[in-house]
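re: ur question from yesterday

yeah so i grabbed the chain u mentioned. its 99 aa long if i counted rite. heres the sequnce exactly as i have it in my notes:
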Amino acid sequence: MMISDTAKWQTERAQFELEEVERLKKELLRAIDGDDYLKEQVIELRYQNQILREENQCLKDKLEKAHEFMKQFVIGGINLLEKFMEWIGEKVKDVGRGR
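ran it thru and got these structure tokens back, copy pasting raw so excuse formatting
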């Protein structure tokens, strides 16, 4: 009788440990899948970041060309760039005054 009880207890203990192993296995597999997802997200974000850097550089180049172009033209003794900057300054003041 005692051997039977011990065997039953060991069987129940083994079953419990097997269930715990299965639970940990599932948890580990979810964590691994999560890592793959995060890796994909990092790759995607790096790609998007590179595209934005290239676009930013292109816009900076265009702005520099526009500045150089505007500096070439003079209106009333002031180059077009300075005139434009004055106009922008006036608009900012107007916005500040609530116009």
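noticed a couple things. The helical segments are 2-72, 80-96. also The radius of gyration is 35 Å.
anyway ttyl
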